[in-house]
Design goal:
This protein is α+β, with helices and mostly antiparallel strands. The chain is about 40% helix and about 30% strand.
């Protein structure tokens, strides 16, 4: 039995290490490439899913069709030092569950006083609202609320 020469043994081992190192490098490159590809696919899927969910949520929360069927008019407004009296009429086919009232003072407030009033109005009905207030108001914005509690800003009545 012959013993292998020590230099030949080292040379053959280093050649094996080089081959193993190259194949190990290739396997890492393939693994990283697969991870990037999988991450890209998951990102695109999640982005599409989020956009779809956002569109569905917007349709549920802000139903433009129901807002087109609401009409609100302010018949009269009267204010004294403590109270504000507003006569409202629902002028369209859909009932309202309430209104949001924004009150702007004569001093050009940046933040108007805002109140939510639970005053249901059926189609064609009128209602008188009385609210307490502070100071003199120069402008009112009355925003109708639908059955789903959607504030229809485009159907706002101003006085």
């Amino acid at each position: 039995m012959q013993k292998a020469h020590p230099k030949r043994r080292v040379a053959s081992q280093s050649r094996g290490l080089r081959k193993r190192a190259i194949s190990e490098f290739i396997s890492y490159a393939i693994l990283i490439g697969l991870a990037i590809m999988l991450g890209t696919l998951v990102f695109k899927w999640a982005t599409g899913m989020a956009n779809d969910r956002a569109a569905d949520l917007q349709n549920k929360v802000y139903d433009r069709d129901i807002c087109k069927q609401i009409g609100l008019s302010i018949q009269s407004v009267c204010q004294n030092p403590q109270t504000l009296n507003i006569n409202l009429t629902n002028t369209n086919q859909v009932g309202m569950t309430g209104v949001l009232v924004r009150m702007y003072s004569i001093y050009d407030d940046i933040q108007p006083e805002m109140r939510e009033v639970n005053a249901s109005l059926g189609p064609g009905q009128s209602r008188a609202l009385t609210m307490t207030k502070q100071g003199t108001k120069r402008r009112l914005e009355v925003i109708p609320l639908t059955v789903k509690n959607i504030a229809c800003r485009e159907r706002m009545a101003v006085a």
